[in-house]
Amino acid sequence: MHSVARWSVLLAVVLSPWLFGSTEPWAWLLMCLLISFGAAAWLIGVFQDGTLHRVTAVAAVAGSVVLAYVVLQSLPLPPAVARGANRISAETQAAGYHALDEIRASTGLEDAIPAAPPTPSLSVSRAGTVRALYLLIAYLLTFLILVDSIADREDAEVLAWTVASVGFIMALFAIVQDFSGTRLIYWFHRPRLGGTIFGPYTNRNHFAAWMNLCIGVALALLLSSSRYALTPQALPWRERMALLSSRRVNGVILLSYAVVVMASAVFVSLSRGGIASLVAAAGLLSAAVGGRTARVRKRIWMTLFTLWVLAMVAWLGWQPVFERLGSLSILAADPLHDTRWRMTAAVLRMWASAPFFGYGFGAFQHAFPLFQKPVLQFGRFVHGHNDYAQLLAEGGLFGLAAFGFVFALFGMALWRGYRKSSRESQLFVIGLMVGIVSIVLHSAVDFSLRRPANALLLIFMAALALAVTRRNDKAQDYTYNSRTSPRVRAAALLGLAGLALLTLMQTRELRGELAFARFIQWQQIASGGASTNILIEAAGLGSEEADCMIRGRLMNPDAQMDVVVGTLKNVGRLDIPPDLRIRLAAQAEQAALLSAAAAPTDYEYWLWLSRALRVNGHHEAEELAIAQTAKLAPPGTRME
């Protein structure tokens, strides 16, 4: 069962980037369900064996601290407590829920949508925080399964070879797709919200971050496999020639080529943050390995790799890369006027307004407009372009402390095992650290870890590093004996019960997200200048999908708002039959109410609710929605 669990998690890790980085909710919900399947197999194995590694148990407890804090953010609290923790959040939620109750009463939709919660929560969007909880549970389960089921370094290397191979294939695919000149992912998919696509990602920075992690995995294999090349002792030339026919040396050659191709893909992606973080992490690798390697030999290896990568980039096309890197001089001349730094400053102002508890994990986009100054009013910001600032804004100091507690335990366990490890295991960990350090640096100027595929690969690498070093401390490996085995089995049963409930909730959400994906397809057909008959059929089928989302109470206010936008567009088409237009108008109103209820601090949802109410002739309720929009919108926002 442990093998089934391990390979299920690995499948999720290697499949997630191909699903557009698992950015879309339907993609990461699929990954969550796949990880849950692996977790069920793992818990069954734990129940059968009655054993659990000590490190796994400690990691489960530490991870549960973070999960408990996220759950706390989503719970209704007494008004006085919520106001003391975050006055802005509590007051805006209370005003929003009061307005929603009045709108429900005036429109006669009391039964069509759920009643507003009686009291506010720490999070400005319970729905967004619950979805963040889904992802955090998936990450924790991935870590626990891998740490508990990897038996030795050979197991870790098999998993690492799989990921490195997928990274090499993706690098080749991304380069070919880019050179083909297409602006479509896989030559057929046009991202709904646009973006600077590269590979299967809608954002080249996120592709570069994922590829840097893959480079770390490949380097871990390369360094641990090529120990003979990193030691000062020289072999006789006959033995060196004989080694060229060995499987190990062939693997080193393949890994070297894979690293060069993947690094070239990072450069070709033109991601400045990705390139800079890779170079910085590689420099740290050089310093780390340098203490164990002859200086001359180290310089030769690093110089050869650098020249190989530069030659590859020059062959693929050096001019765009150098022009892109040249723009860094403009940024360095006036860094405070860069959008990223302005965004970071705004996010820190947001955190300063609620320094202890934040605005709720997964709720950033619904709270940030309250702090969005005119200089940043050129779009909707879903993330903060700085993962650390956003962590503070969403979780506050208590959230930072919870994550810091987990990272501190991980670092101590890794260091303790690293010191006792063999030289090969240490080199394996150093290689992994190149990828980990690169994304740690990159996250200061981007939000790559907000992409589930990237976060999942980072968790995979952290688990690999800990599992490889932990196997050297057998005395502390297990936490079971004749007395504790029943406790382990009871914990496994409790985990299976919780996993079953979680799977039911995520399956329901996935059904709604798939309905939304189909709605978007029908809406694109309806907007594509099709004939009247096709337009009517597409609008009708899209209405059925929207009805599925509304009845299922999909916890995705952005999707509900897109339904409002699409259905209102169809309501204005005179070639659609009146009865269908009336039904579409009613659906737009219900979807708009659901989106405003899911995130009552987001002015865009109130704006679209006012438009839906106007179409349905509910003018008194429309005035209430407009008043809420005016209270929540950033200064200077145009309300047409």
Outline the structure in words.
The chain has 640 residues and is mainly alpha-helical. It is 72% helix and 0% strand. It has helices spanning 2-15, 25-49, 54-74, 79-85, 87-107, 126-149, 153-179, 204-225, 237-243, 247-268, 272-290, 295-333, 339-352, 364-367, 387-419, 423-442, 452-470, 485-526, 532-551, 557-571, 578-598, 603-615, 619-632. It is globular, with a radius of gyration of 26 Å. The N and C termini lie far apart (58 Å).
Shape: globular
Q: Helical amount among residues, as a percent range?
A: over 70%
Overall radius of gyration = 26 Å
Mean pLDDT across the residues is 85
Count of individual beta strands:
0
The low-confidence runs, each spanning 5 or more residues with pLDDT under 50, are: 228-233, 473-478
H-E order: HHHHHHHHHHHHHHHHHHHHHHH
Discrete helix count: 23
| Structural category | mainly alpha
Give a brief description.
This protein is 72% helix and 0% strand. It is an all-alpha fold.
Show the helix and strand layout:
Blueprint: H1 2-15, H2 25-49, H3 54-74, H4 79-85, H5 87-107, H6 126-149, H7 153-179, H8 204-225, H9 237-243, H10 247-268, H11 272-290, H12 295-333, H13 339-352, H14 364-367, H15 387-419, H16 423-442, H17 452-470, H18 485-526, H19 532-551, H20 557-571, H21 578-598, H22 603-615, H23 619-632
Helix pairs in contact: 1-2, 1-6, 1-7, 1-17, 2-6, 2-18, 3-6, 3-15, 4-5, 5-23, 6-17, 7-8, 7-10, 8-10, 8-11, 8-16, 8-17, 10-12, 11-12, 11-16, 13-15, 15-17, 16-17, 18-19, 18-20, 19-20, 19-21, 20-21, 20-22, 21-22, 22-23
